[in-house]
Amino acid sequence: MKSLKITVLSGKGGTGKTTVSVNMALSLPNIQLLDADVEEPNSQYFLHPNFDKEEQIFRKVPEIDQETCTACRKCVDFCEYNALAMMLDEVLVFPEICHSCGGCEKLCPVNAITEVDRVLGVLKHAETDYDVDFWQGELNIGEESSVPVIEGLKEKADNQKDVIIDAQPGTTCPTIEAVVDSDYGILVTEPTPFGLSDLKLASELMDELQIPHGVIINRAEEDSDYIIENFCAENNIDILLKIPFKREFAHLYSDGIPFVLEYPAWEKEFKAVFDKIRGVLNEKNYSN
Amino acid sequence: MKKITVISGKGGTGKTTVVSNLAYLANDLVLADCDVDAPNLHLLLNPEVNNANVFKSNKLAIKDQDKCTDCGVCYDVCRFNAVDPVSYDIDKYKCEGCGVCVAMCPADALSLKLLDTGEIYNSTTKFGPMIHARLKIGSDNSGKLVSEVREKAVETAEEKNKDLILIDGSPGIGCPVISSITGVDLVLFVTEPSKSGFSDLKRVAKVIEHFNIPALAVINKYDINKKISQEIEVYLKEEDIELVGKISYSSDVVDNLRNAQLIVEQDKDNIVSKEIKEIWENIQNRINQN
User: Fold this and answer.
1) Nearest CA to B135 among B149, B118, B151, B158?
2) A37: nearest CA in chain B?
3) Could you say which architecture CATH assigns to the domain A58-119?
4) Least Cα separation, residue B82 to chain A (angstroms)
């Protein structure tokens, strides 16, 4: 059976992506978990990994040789991100906002620009006690662009294993980079107007990327779930699971304890979600 | 005029709930929703939109197939894997609009096209003007849209002579967050007592320190885990971040949210309302000190 790559995402932050990713990973055999929420990677607080490998993620930024530079402004005018500026007769570089496109170096008529490596973030690996192969990406403080860290992280995906990717909230570049080549997206939401509004955005994104997806309602409450259920029914989106609103779950979360460890009956529920996803994808493949 | 941005590091800690309830207490201010990726403030404040403007800042390389000679230079120079190795078509999600392919194309077959990044709204709420935006799905450049919202809010405050701008920020520590705190007087952290919340707070606090902006903090749902709340309090003291209040965990908050109501307005005697009121008084004291 072909292994699956599933990304867990949400429009809104704090809906329970990490809760779903971690508990699901712990419920399945032969699994790899990639924490791609590189601005705030939190799966580590639930898996207590002893990191055994670290790889830095670099990107290229320009360095100007002021001796050679003739202050012709070609590079400054070219840069779409305003990462270069002219101060008197000198070109200044703002490396944090540079996108590392390499254009300035190529265009400089006097070869006054060289590209140097800048550390953007780090990838960390651990074999965890729970038999989950774990990688996380971490963006360095003060850096703006998460995408290269997420790209590097995705290269660690093991195609012999089923892979769960914990994405960053939102619908912009970092979230897209995490999910773009996944087989399936799990959208985690909560039964509030905020949850619904942001679920709509996430689902619109998945439609645009043409990735099959389903919904998990976290903090589900019987008399409020209709907020999400109505939307899913109207748009023909599967509801894969409901995780009830319980103060006990919130407390376990706060202490970094995955609730499947305290309530092992939930393993079955997460396995069922995974089987359902596999079924949906198989059906799609047959019909194609 | 004072500008305060509310951020958290971790998502879902209660930024928007705090902002909207503080807006009620402040009563006369300018609001800005800089969480352009997943804006929610409008759901609670129900603003009347006076005008909407398309904001363009994204660029995308466009190929003129008639001029293209299939030489492959664009593929060679693109750092973002946005050019297909066979067809040399450009992937609109991967293209970052840097213009390298445009500059290097020997056949002059490529150009940069300006795209819609999103829409900006100039609106009115019960408590004053509100600037908000909606980023186009899958769009790049949220940072620029955030800056635009922030700048529009400042213009509006100057025009209408308002003393306070309250900015709802986005989760994380990356580009939209950095754009939302540029040039503000104070940052208010809304955190929660969980291992993740605490760790994310520390990361975002380092960003703020990097930009040298004074910070205040609120611990939301503090009684979910009193031990971690205490650890956060110790940390805040060490970092010289003033704790302006703690908010109790209450399902009344979510109930009000579900009805698009503000708890401080609907249920003045609720413990949460009292706590938020005290937070507002402490913030005012701090503003007046500066």
Assistant:
1) B118
2) B172
3) 2-Layer Sandwich (3.30)
4) 12
